[in-house]
Amino acid sequence: MGPVGRRGRATAAARGWRWPDLVTLGLLLSACELEAAIAFKPNILLIMADDLGIGDLGCYGNDTLRTPNIDRLAEEGVRLTQHLAAAPLCTPSRAAFLTGRHSFRSGMDATDGYRALQWNGGSGGLPENESTFARILQRQGYATGLIGKWHQGVNCESRTDHCHHPLRHGFDYFYGLPFTLVNDCDPARPPEVDAALRARLWHHTQLAALGVLTLALGKACGLVSAPWRAITGAAGLLLLGFGSWYASFGFVRRWNCIVMRNHDVVEQPMDLERAAGRLLREAVSYIERNKDGPFLLFLSLLHVHIPLVTAPEFLGKSPHGLYGDHVQEMDWLVGQILNALEESGVANATFTYFTSDHGGHLEARDGEGAQLGGWNGVYRGGKGMAGWEGGIRVPGIFRWPGVLPAGRVIHEPTSLMDVFPTVVQLGGGKVPQDRVIDGRSLLPLLQGAARRSEHEFLFHYCGASLHAARWHDTQNGRLWKVHYVTPRFHPPGAGACYGRGVCPCSGDGVTRHSPPLLFDLSTDPSEARPLSPDSEPLYHAVVARVGEAVEEHRGTLSPVTPQFSLTRILWKPWLQPCCGIFPFCSCRQDEDPGGT
Q1: What is the pTM of this model?
Q2: Residue 241: which domain range?
Q3: Among 90, 503, 505, 578, which one carries the catalytic annotation?
Q4: What's residue 481's pLDDT?
């Protein structure tokens, strides 16, 4: 320790203070400053990227992609290095983010193979009895807006009941996609939504058509004795089956790729090339309209989900092909939003957060095999994998000038679910006491009033299956990770499940480990070296302690209505959002001067 440090301790001792007393006083002063800042009810800007890999950003170690605006956020604020999604796919991860609860607690995770909502015309979605941070802040006088992707459902029983809609969950303004981006949104891309089922249905339809034609030909030639009534009936059933197939699958782009403003469909199908520019203008306009605050804006970006439709001025600008170009366009969009805060004079009064909903999509490839998904840095696995770090470790960047220290880096385990209690505390609300809340407020950690995360254990689910759990052993500073289930990569050793979209959660596509795999993330963040009783003396003690925590955690679970059941996932024509005359739904937004 240098002379200044020694002199400081000597002076404190002369005044009767002990060094731990000064540390405590400093923490109390920080807490008082934080409480004073919260009393002003800051604006809250939450920016969530889609499918972004943690290794895609310069502030997380990427030295080949340019992300200066997001990097600036990290320089001016606090960066988390162990920020974790509660699920490795869009719908469940966002449900947990909005509610501060594991998604299976609200039925928003897989029970039978479907792991995300498939249709705007399905009946599954975030239940009305769930409390989002938007609903709580709305009651505290905040203007609450969601711009971008929702993917939490729309309707329950009719086309206009909007039971799962953002406006029923605390947002007073919504502009964006009630669903998500899929390849089907781009006519030039191969189909994505239930592509395997679609292929099987088409195959069976062709076989049935061949059978009906054979019967008809046999009847006409006198080789078949079946009555014409039976043959025409079979033809009618075939026509009905084909019609249902065509309506639900042949119209995927028209049904799923739509834009809504509040309850109204304003573009069907969406103009994909203009979507990013329109979302940007909506976000800037929202900040300007509500600059007298307080406001909560959840900007749910379409970047960097496939299909990667990128503006011409960004094409060819990165060394990583179309995906890299798309990341750099996303960073530019973030920069425009930050500029809007500055121009509206609210940058210093705004708590800003940037993250991704889960890890990068390793299996995303174009027709020639080129990568269309992100890079997860040193972490193993990706989107769809709930145990391996690459599927769940995401960026976590917070900025609040004058309140949060600039340049702080925190290595404690945290969760996307922590944003719920953090935002509720910022807005002066109270976390619900009538349900299990899995998140913990990050404000003491961000401000420096706390040194440790409140998460001693975190549990990592793939659908309804617990794949892994981590233990932050503060006694010796080690971070243990226990894997009970891992996906079987395809082909073996590939590191992903190529040709399968994403890796499965259960069945033949996974390996169950007994005894479980154990890693020490504090020395092996890549999860490359599994420990054994021979290599790690604490192996049995760690596995046993984590097992006890898992059992305690399971005691908090209770049955709920599954929102991803087959009956709720299936497309229902009477629930399909539509502008114009159903089923010929069609509308276009006014042309924008100046293009995208």
Answers
A1: 0.88
A2: 195-250
A3: 90
A4: 98
